[in-house]
Amino acid sequence: MPEKNPRKRARKAARKGKAPSTQASEFVREEMEHIREGKHGARSTKQAIAIGLSKARRAGVKLRPPKGKSVATRAKAVSDYRKGQMSPRHTPSATRSRAISGVLKRESHEAASPAALSRQASSAARSRGATARSRAAKQAVRTRRAD
Question: pLDDT category, 7, cuts 50, 70, 90?
Answer without folding.
Answer: confident
